[in-house]
Design goal:
By secondary structure, the chain is α/β, with parallel strands linked by helices. The chain contains 20 helices and 28 strands.
């Protein structure tokens, strides 16, 4: 009897031993758990062990300072941790190496040996277990605060990432996992710009857990997918989401039924044939375990409406909106109104708000709404009027996504990689950075006053709104963008010019459309001295960025209020650009007169314009606000008359003009318009030396 019992116990022991899967976490100080106060409990391998449970045995074989390069300053293959990892005889190996190879002692000298050295490391694990499953991680980010960020680390980090991609594509049966993208928008989790804290380690552990088990939480879609949504019509559209690894996903709509299989990273996408503008589609997305059904879906034109408070400005606050709101019922116009959970007003946010903001949870959960009085009154006035004109002209459903945030500077809307590469100075010492407008820094400081976290995030910080408001849209197909922003960057038009180009490129890259229309609003009139130069710089951008248009609204300003209430004109003028340029309605004039050329001859300047049909004044009074200056650069008011759709300008005080300008007052009463009634833009021109 004893023999039988012992045999049963031995058998159970063997079965139990065989059922344990060994996971070796190979890496450097990040794997080791450097800078984590209780690394034995909170390093990513320790947290991974708790996630995987007792059927797995996770070993931490991280070595601080270790390089993948065998000629590096601390080669991993010569460390005791490497020998222990080999002796562990793992069934699964997770490798996160390369960070220390960015050291100037390493990469500049031995970069050509990196791929071979990585293959050699992989070979050693396959030699002890031919069936060993190997997961290779793209490296975690290195933050802009790192002392070597500019001297080479950022560039070398990118080069090593590319080498890692080459390895995963060419070495048989290895799996790429991504430690980079999930942590890139969370710099607050890197106290020293290099090592993630406990929360960052938890994210790494979750990534490894998901990739080992294939459990990504089942079928999930971005919040932008809901009942009543509008999908972009008349072009192939890509639907994408998350599901468990290697799951079959089926998408059905409008007699289309397409299937795909989820990748090992849980991601899937399906490109549908163009949809016709129609009512009451049903979108069905299903796996074997879960089905999502979205009802009352329309196909039409979808526009993203973004910027700061003048785009956020609600219809209910705009002038003469009562009748508009009362008659706003239109089931073919739909709103996706991304509302901030905390306004950036004069307020100190509490601990719960600050924690949520650090987790990029700044916007409330939302769904698509049908245009009616209750939804329209709380929606962006500019976006509403823009959408209404498009619907009336195109006779197709219109979807409007609004995620504008009051006071937000342009840099908060640009992706981190773009700013790191082209304008890293914006990221440093933010609270004392002269590139940032004083008001912006002061308001952010007030909102986060109650925190002791030196890495506390705020919606005004560079990249934050891209990471919390653009990335979550998951590249939802759109036709184009309307943009009303600039008040929070008007102190420095030179930096804004650079940033605006970066913004447009950033968003066009995100949506994979180099020709995506981007129509923006020039700042209106307000008694702020820098606004003349800023408006002129916005005008110049029209000639530097293709597929853009600018709505001039100096006639809609308020001398004291940064939030003028005349919003219908702004929405209508943005719609005119879209109708003319995007939808090819050539009979619609997209703009007021735009400066084209100034010819200086003796005491007179003759100015020609684009969109110069029927030049006249808005109030039938003589032309106002033209000025001339000579060599001394001192401007004097000038007389101006319209002659054959040109404007002739002269002044008794300027015998030989060298400069001419128009509407060069922060709050201007300029009155030149064209046949559309749209106003001419602020401009400044100088006589050519030729």
């Amino acid at each position: 009897m004893k023999k039988i019992i012992l045999l049963v116990i031995a058998t159970l022991f063997c079965l139990n031993t065989e059922s344990v899967t060994k996971v070796a976490c190979v890496g450097n100080s990040i794997t080791y758990g450097m800078c984590i106060s209780n690394r034995e409990h909170d390093s990513y391998p320790a947290q991974l062990q708790r996630m995987l449970g007792e059927k797995y045995e996770v070993g931490n074989f991280g070595k601080s300072g270790a390089t993948l390069l065998r000629k590096g300053h601390r080669p991993y293959n010569t460390q005791i941790e490497y020998k222990k990892a080999i002796d562990f005889k793992p069934d699964i190996v997770v490798i996160h190496l390369g960070i220390n190879d960015t050291d100037p002692r390493n990469w500049p000298n031995y970069r050509d040996e990196f791929i071979n050295d990585y293959y050699a490391l992989l070979d050693t694990f396959r030699a002890i277990n031919k069936k060993c499953r190997i997961l290779i991680a793209k490296m975690t980010p290195i933050g802009h605060q790192h002392h070597r960020f500019d001297s080479g680390t950022r560039v070398w980090h990118d080069e090593i990432q590319e080498a890692i991609l080459t390895i995963t594509k060419n070495y048989k049966d290895v799996q790429l996992i991504d430690f980079y993208e999930p942590l890139l928008p969370l710099p607050n989790l890197f106290p020293d710009a290099l090592h993630p804290n406990e929360a960052g380690a938890e994210i790494l552990a979750k990534i490894v857990y998901q990739n080992i088990t294939g459990n990504f939480g089942g079928l999930k879609m971005s919040d932008i997918y809901s009942d009543n949504m509008i999908l972009q019509y008349n072009q192939p559209i890509t639907i994408s989401g998350i599901a468990n690894a290697n799951e079959k996903v089926t998408v059905e709509i409008a007699n289309q039924r397409q299937k795909t299989t989820t990748a090992t990273n849980g991601k899937w996408s399906i490109t549908l044939k163009p949809l016709k503008a129609s009512e009451n589609y049903t979108l069905k997305i299903a796996t074997s375990k879960k089905t999502l059904i979205f009802k009352n879906v329309l196909a039409g034109e979808v526009w993203l409406c973004s910027g700061q408070s003048n785009m956020e400005f609600q219809l209910s606050r705009s002038i003469n909106s009562e009748n508009e709101i009362a008659n706003a019922m239109n089931p073919n116009i739909r709103f996706f109104n991304m509302k901030a959970r905390w306004h950036t007003d004069i307020n100190e946010w509490d601990a719960a708000a600050l924690d949520s903001i650090n987790q990029l949870k700044y916007f409330a959960k939302n769904t698509w709404e049908i245009c009616q009085s209750t939804s329209a009154q709380n929606f962006s006035a500019v976006a509403y009027y823009f959408g209404k004109v498009l619907h009336d002209s195109l006779n197709v459903p219109i979807g409007l996504i609004c995620n504008a945030v009051g006071g937000s500077p342009i840099e908060s809307w640009i992706d981190r990689r773009t700013i790191e590469e082209h304008f890293p100075a914006l990221l440093r010492n933010w609270s004392n950075n002269d590139f940032i407008q004083d008001w912006v820094r002061e308001r952010a400081a007030l909102n986060i006053k109650k925190t002791d976290d030196k890495l506390q995030r705020h919606p005004y910080h560079p990249c934050y709104l891209y990471e919390s408001a653009i990335a979550p849209l998951e590249k939802f197909p759109i036709k184009g963008v309307i943009w009303y922003q600039g008040e929070s960057n008007a102190h420095n038009h030179e930096s804004h010019t650079k940033l605006f180009k970066m913004l447009v490129d950033s968003w066009r890259n995100n949506w994979g459309n180099d020709e995506m229309p981007f129509y923006y609003v020039q700042l209106s009139s307000l008694n702020r001295p820098s606004w003349t130069w800023f408006r002129n710089s916005q005008r110049l951008l029209l000639n530097e960025i293709p597929f853009t248009g600018m709505a001039v609204c100096t006639d809609c300003g308020d001398s004291l209020d940064v939030h003028p209430r005349q919003k219908k004109e702004v929405g209508d003028r943005l719609a005119a650009w879209a109708l003319n340029k995007t939808y090819k309605y050539k009979k619609i004039t997209p703009s007021g007169p735009l400066f084209k050329e100034a010819k200086f001859s003796n005491s007179e300047v003759i100015i020609s314009f684009e969109y110069d049909e029927n030049l006249h004044t808005s109030d039938n009074a003589p032309l106002r606000t033209f000025e001339l200056a000579g060599e001394n650069g001192i401007f004097y008011p000038a007389e101006a008359i319209i002659s054959r759709n040109k404007v002739k300008v002269k002044s008794k005080k300027v015998k030989k003009p060298k400069f001419v300008r128009y509407a060069w007052q922060p709050y201007t009463r300029a009155n030149l318009v064209n046949d559309s009634g749209f106003p001419a833009s602020t401009f400044r021109a100088e006589k050519s030396e030729n």
